[in-house]
Design goal:
Elements: E1 2-6, H1 11-22, E2 26-32, E3 54-58, H2 64-81, E4 85-87, H3 95-108, E5 112-114, H4 118-125, H5 127-136, E6 144-147, H6 150-159, E7 165-169, H7 188-196, E8 206-210, E9 215-224, E10 227-235, E11 242-243, H8 251-264, E12 274-283, E13 289-296, H9 310-318, E14 349-350, H10 352-368, H11 374-390, E15 392-393, H12 402-422, E16 429-430, E17 435-436
Parallel strand pairs: 1-2, 1-4, 2-3, 4-5, 14-15
Antiparallel strand pairs: 6-8, 7-8, 9-10, 9-12, 11-14, 12-13, 16-17
Helix pairs in contact: 1-9, 2-3, 3-4, 10-11
Length: 437
Amino acid sequence: RTILISSVSMSKGLALARTFYLAGHRVIGVDFDTAHFAHSTVPSSGRFSNALNKYYTVATPHGENSQKRYADDMVALVKREGVDLWVCVSGVASTVEDALLKDAVEKETRCRVFQPNPETCEKLHDKWEFIRMVEEAGLRTPVTKLVEEKVEVWNVLKNHPELKFIVKCVELDDVSRADMTLLPQPTTLETERFLSGIEISKNKRWVVQVFINGKEFCTHAVVVRGKVKAFVACPSMEMLMHYEALPKESELSKAMLEFTKRLVGTLEGGKMTGQVSFDFLVDGLDEIKLFPIECNPRTHTAVVLLTEQPRQLANAYLSLLDEPELPSNRGHDMDISTIMHPTYPRRSFYWIGHDIVADIVLPILHMMALKETPWNCVKSVVWFLVRVFTWKETTFEVWDPLPWWWLYHVYCPWIFVTSLITGRRWSRVNVSTTRVF
């Protein structure tokens, strides 16, 4: 089969490209023609992977004209290469664009597109619409209110004086996404000062959501015609750079899988195909109480936890090409009616470039500035060494080392050079997605 994987610049795209290659398929890689930061034209690390039979760049869909060029580029590419399956590894800003392309690609070619419909993507991505969908499915949700004026925030705080809340922008907002300021603040003046610093309007909507003091988890699911074919759950955080899968036998993993099954069963008449990931807060120890807080209707980086079984994972996606009424005749290596989980013993994943900075460089600088104790600095270095010797570096493969080398020795350094040349400010670099915040 010929498989098209988009966004091989990201670790999740590269991981899926390698998965299909190891499963014996021909893989075509594609990236946008500009990088995520300051429209730098430096090639992505994924283009140098041995897993790719061919590599293309396409127009970046950031305006009406470029969206049309993107659609034309993708349809022409699918026709030229005779693609059987396009697995969309969409970014936050391109999820809906890929979904809109689905109908055009499937009408004009024999290629199938592994992506939900545009309406599904929009509703799942919208923090308010997602909560409403969960409620309609009869599942538990945290107290959440949509606000389009600042006075509405005050009304929520007044109506629930016993609760603490956080506010989250419904639309994409990299600046506010990490802000976990609790409301109300200790004084009314402090609450007013915080609210004065954010824009709330009909064009920039927010949700006020109850603060749950629990652990955060995320999931990734491969769904074909409303059925979960592959699933993994793992601990999460705001910028997740360490991935450790929960055992599939754990009650927590089972609860999140059951939630996923029930919700996707309500989407598109129970026939949705695509990749979905959910973020949960878990409250309670004796009784598991799941509170879904967000959904990403696209590939989650947690998919790397499933790549230890490349043929089985590839077959989970390829089951879309089977006629629904007929059993598969390709001789799959597993019973596709069962849900694929990570292997046991499970491997944990990290990115060495991130950990060198986070666990070695910064602790040493903080210690030199007397902001960190020597003992804590030593512990940080020891944990770094533990990961190096016992975990899996996500980007590196012995048989495919060049993407790893290019990422850390060319791509990331060029981001810093670009920032100096252009004067663009940044605070964080996510080496797994190559996004700059």
